[in-house]
Amino acid sequence: MAGIDLEVSEGEIYAFLGPNGAGKTTTVRMLVTLLQPTGGTARVAGHDVCEDAPAVRRSIGVALQEAALDPLMTGRELMRLQATLHGLPTEEGKRKGDALLDRVGLTQAADRRVGTYSGGMRRRLDLATALVHDPSVLFLDEPTTGLDPVSRIAIWEEVKRLNDEGTTVFLTTQYLEEADHLADRVGIIDDGKMAAEGTPGELKSQVGIAHLELVIAAGESAEAEEILARFGEPMPSRDGTLMVGLRGGAADVAPIVRALDEAGCAVEALELVQPSLDDVFVEKTGRHLEGAADDQPSVDETVPA
Amino acid sequence: MTTGIAFELRSTWALMRRAINEIARVPGAVIPAVLAPTIFMCGLAAVFGNLTQLPGFTTDTYLTFILPVGFLQGAGFTGAATGVNLARDIELGWFDRLLASPAPRGVLLAGTVLSASLRVLMPITLLMVVGLSLGVTFPGVDGLVIAVLFASAFAAVAACYGAILALKFKTQAAAPLMQAGMFIAVLFTTAYAPQELLTGWLQDVARLNPVTQILEAIRQGFVGEVTWADTWPGLLALAGLGAVMVTLAMRGLRRSGE
Amino acid sequence: MVAALGRRSVRQAFRRPQFLAPIIVFPSLFLAVNTGGAGRAVDLPQFPPVHGFLDFQLAGAMLQSTMLAGVSAAIALALDIQIGFVDRLVAAPIARASFVLGRLVATGVLGVLSGLWFITIGLVFGAEIHSGVPGALVVLALVGLNAIAWGTIGAALALNTGSPAVAQGIFPIVFVILFLSSAFFPENLLLEPAKTIAEWNPMSLIANGLREPIISDLSWGKTLEGLGGIAIVAAIGTVLCARGINKKLRSA
Known about the structure:
The complex is a heterotrimer of chains A (305), B (258) and C (252).
Chain A: E1 13-17, H1 24-31, E2 43-44, E3 47-48, H2 53-59, E4 60-63, H3 75-85, H4 90-103, H5 119-131, E5 137-141, H6 149-164, E6 168-173, H7 176-182, E7 185-190, E8 193-198, H8 200-207, E9 210-216, H9 221-231, E10 233-234, E11 242-246, H10 253-263, E12 267-273, H11 277-285
Parallel strand pairs in A: 1-6, 1-7, 4-5, 5-6
Antiparallel strand pairs in A: 2-3, 7-8, 9-11, 9-12, 10-11
Helix pairs in contact in A: 3-4, 3-5, 4-5, 8-11, 9-10
Chain B: H1 5-25, H2 27-48, H3 62-92, H4 94-99, H5 105-119, H6 121-133, H7 140-169, H8 175-187, H9 200-208, H10 210-223, H11 228-255
Chain C: H1 2-15, H2 17-38, H3 53-82, H4 85-91, H5 96-124, H6 132-161, H7 164-169, H8 171-179, H9 194-200, H10 202-215, H11 220-251
Helix pairs in contact in C: 1-5, 2-3, 3-5, 3-6, 3-8, 3-10, 5-6, 6-10, 6-11, 10-11
C-alpha cells in the first residue's frame, strides 16, 4: 500500500472500487485486524485496530473473498460455531443462527454439508455467519465475484436491507454496477493509492462527458482514429472498440458519422455512452477498470492497430 | 459474553469438536495414521526381535519393549497430522475466519492442539489390542494410565510443533518437515534398545533428548513397576517441551498478521 | 520423446518436497536410527561377519528409497492421469509405451542417484565397500534396476486405480514388504512368521544381492539372485501395467 486516508460514517455503505491487485483486499485485511499496518492508524467502530483488536473483532462482521467455509460442516453447524466464537450463549446462538439461515434462504440446505452448496449458497451462508452477533460494521470483500446475476442481485438486496437496519457496510468490488448501485460513497483505489472519492454522482459529474463507442471494419481503424481525434477527445480503445469523448454529447455524433462515411470507413457498430465510473477511473489512472487485470494501454500509449 | 473462562472453554471445545468432526466424516483419511504405529511395531519386533538375546535387555520380548514407542509414534504423527490440517485451514482461508473472531489466540491454539490429545487414543487403542493379543505383558492399570496420559500430552506438544510450522510456512507442503521432526524426536531415543546397548553416538543423543524421558515414563509399567523416580523426569520433559512449543506457537499466531 | 518425458519426471520430483522426502530423507533417518539403535546386533552369535552394522544396513536403506520412489512416481502418474495429461498422450500417435518408459527412465535415474547418496554417507560414516569400486558399480546397477522394477509397480498402481490418494496409502505396505524380508536383518535372525515369509520374498533376493558387494567379495551367484528378484518384480509390474493401459485404451 502506498498510503490511504479514508473515513466512513456510521450507517453508510462505502464501496472500495479498483482492479485486481490495487490493494482492496490488503486494506480490508488491515481493517479487520488480520494484517498489521506498517504505518499509520486505523479505527473501526471506535476502536484502534492495533491497540484494541479484540474490541474491533467484537463489533465487526467479516465475509472475505475466499468464502472460507469448512466443506465437511453443515450450514447449521457453521452458524453454531460462529455464534460460540462470538460469545453467544447456546440457546441464543441457535435461535439467531436459524433465523439468519432463514433470512438468506438456506433453511432447506442447513443440514447438508457445505461442500454440496453452490457458489451462491456459500456466499449467502458466509454473509449469514458474519451477522450472527449483530455487528455494527460489516466488511464484505468482493461479495459477488463469480456469482450468476440472480445470486448477485439477491446479495445486493440483502446488503441494502442490512444497511436500512443500521449496519455500516464497507465493501470492496471490481464491478462498477455494484459500486454504482449500492454505495453511498465510493473510493476508487489503484496501485495502493486512493485515486478519487465521493458519491457516485459526484464522481461521474467530475468526469462529465459522454463518449462514443465504435466498431470499425478491420484495416480502417487507423484512419478512423485520426478522424475521431479531429472531432473529440481521444480515449484508449478497448477490445478493438474505438472510443472518443464528446463534449457536446449527442450533438457531436452526426458530424463524426458523416466524416467517417466520407473517408470510406465502414461503421459496424455505434453506441453513445453516458459517463460511468469506468470513465472516472480512466480519467484518474489512464486505464480502464473492467478487464484492467490485463494490460491496457494508457492514454499516452495508444497506438492505432 | 466474549470474555471470561466460560467463553474460552466453550470456544476451545467447539474448535476441538470441529477438528474431531473431520475424522468421523472422512474416516479413510485417518486409517493410515491409526494403522502405521501398529504396523511399525509388529515389523520392528519381527525384524529386530532377537536383540533381546543381548545381555542387558530389560524385557523378555522385544514387542513389550517397543510397544511404548508405538504410543509415542502415534502421538507424534497425530501431532504432525494436526499441523498439516492447520496448514490446510490456513491455505483455504478458514483460519482467517477464526482469527477475525473475538476468540483469543490462545483459544485458537488450544482448540487445534487439544484435538490431537483425543485423536491419539485411536492408534493407542489399536496398539494395545494387537499388542496384548500377541503376548505383551499388561502394564498394570497404573502403568497404562500413565502411558496414555503421557502419550496424550505428547500429542498436544507435537501438535504445537506442527502448528508452529503451519503458521510459519502456511502450506501443506511443510508436511514432510513436521513428520521428519517427529520421527527424529521419537526414534532418536532409547526406542530400539536400553541406553547402554545403543551405539555410541545415539547413546549421547538419546541422553540429551528430552523425549527419552517421556518414553521411559510410558515404558515403565511394561518393564517393571511404576515409580515416581521413573515418572518425574518425563513430567519435567513434557513441561519443558510444552512451554517452549506453546510460546513459539503463540508467537507464530500473533505474527500471522504480518 | 522418452528423454523429454523422462526429464519432465525428474524435474517434477525435485520440485515437490513431498515427493522427494520419502526417497532420501526418511530412508536416511531410518538408516541412522536402525544403525544406532540395533547396532549391537553384530554381537549376536548368529550374525554374519561384517565390517560394521552400517555396512549391513545400507542395502535396506537403498531398497526402501527405491521402492518409495516407485510409489511416489505412482502418485505423480496418478495425478497426471487425473489432470488428463495421460489421455492426451494416449490419443496422440506416439508410441504409448514411450510415455511409461519416460517415467521409468526417470525412476531409474533417481534410483542410481539415491544409491550414490547412500554409498556416500555410508563411506562418510565409516562403512567400507568390501569389493571396492567394481562392487560399488554392481550395487548402483542393481539399485537402478530395482528402481525401474518398482517404477513399473508404481505405474501399474496408478494406471489401474487412477487415484493419488490410493497410491499414497501404499506407503505403509512398502514398509511391511521390507520388514518381511532380509532388508534390515539377516534372514536367520528374524522372528517367525517373518522368517518364513522372508525366505520366499523376492525382496530378500534383491537385498542380499545388493548387500553382498558391500560386506564381502563380489559373488556372481548372489548378484544373479538379485537380478532374479528384480526380474520377478518387474514382471509383475509389467503385466499389471499392460492391463492398466489396455483398460485406459478401452475406456478412452
